[in-house]
Amino acid sequence: MPRILVIVPFPLDERNLAQRRSQGEAVRLPDDVELVYRTARVAPSNYVSGHDSVIAELSMMEVGMRAEAEGFDAVCIDTMSDTGVTALRSVLRIPVIGPGRHTMLAALMLGRRFSILTMWDAWKPLYSQNIADLGLQAQCASVRAAGIVPDNRNLLAGKEDQVFPRLVEAGRLCVEEDGADVLILGSTTMHDAHAHLCANLPVPVPVIDPGPASYALAVAAIRLRSVHSLVTYPLQPAPSATRLRAVVEAGAAADATRG
After folding, report:
1. Distance between CA 12 and CA 16 in Å, rounded?
2. Could you read off the pLDDT of 81-140 as tens digits, one per residue?
3. Which residues does residue 116 pair with via DSSP β-bridges, in sequence order?
4. DSSP-H helix ranges across 31-178
5. Which residues, at least 6 apart from 60, have a Cβ–Cβ distance to it below 8 Å?
6. Which residues contact 175 (CB under 8 A, 6 or more apart)?
7. Region of residue 225 (phi > 0: left; psi between -120 and 50: alpha; otherwise: beta)
8. 3-state class of 68 per DSSP?
9. Closest by alpha carbon to 29, among 71, 67, 76?
10. Rounded CA gap, 3 and 231, in Å?
């Protein structure tokens, strides 16, 4: 049975984690595939700066670096920032899938130009690095924000009437004004809006839901026995799980003290 570890970038209670797990219901995976969700123990309040990235990279790596030894066949990162992908590829020889760059490449199988539909402007820098690394500046029609501050724990629950119309309007502008023929949701926290957008956009374009897409791509990599290149991602010969765990535990203890 293929087992995929999904690393959630925030410490969550069981109710909030169940909202993340609901992404698995949106994709038809083989019956024998198991998705196992684990949360980071330490996280920034949001992902909007280099400061946040340092904390998040350490925390995501600490969760996933033993995935191969624990019998997992792939790792998926539950954030469009792709936080932890490069670090984990340096210690694992199983597929590590980040939805950011993978959904951009998948979009180009469905159309010529894509737009990223996101919640707020502060997230825009998260996408620019992948766009530049992949050389997709010409293929990215736009990154449009709906002007809504995200809630990384409660997601869109209870805010559908406020959020959904603004996302539909922003998506329409991506297509009609910016020239996109594929839309990518800018966060796995936007999963709840996917079905509504598909049903209510006034223009017939595909909308990629990044979390479920990453699961399907991980399954494909497992089936194809494909893994990242050691030329691009050389293995760390002596990874220090003990030191990393100590750093994260200290951070978790400090968070608990603050209450």
Report:
1. 6
2. 999 999 999 999 999 999 999 999 999 999 999 999 999 898 999 899 999 999 999 999
3. 143, 184
4. 50-64, 85-89, 99-110, 124-134, 160-176
5. 7, 9, 40, 77, 83, 84, 87, 88
6. 115, 181, 183, 201, 203, 205
7. left
8. coil
9. 76
10. 26
Q: Which residue has the tokens 């399954």?
A: 219
Rounded to 10 degrees, the C-alpha dihedral 86/88/91/97 comes to -90
212 has pLDDT over 80:
yes
| Exposure class string for 116-140: b at 16+ Cβ within 10 A, else e | bbbbbeebeebbeebbeeeebeebb
pTM of the model: 0.92
* Cα distances (angstroms) measured from residue 114 to each of 71, 88, 105, 138, 189: 36, 28, 10, 10, 19
Task: Tell me the HSE value of 173 on the side-chain side, using a 13 A CA sphere.
Answer: 13
Q: Examine the pLDDT at 158 and tell me if it is beyond 80.
A: no
The amino acid at residue 81 is S
Q: Which tens digits make up the pLDDT trace of 183-206?
A: 999 999 999 999 999 999 998 999
The reported pLDDT for the residue numbered 68 is 96
CA atoms of 29 and 4, how far apart (whole Å): 11
Nearest to 18 by CA among 29, 6, 30: 6
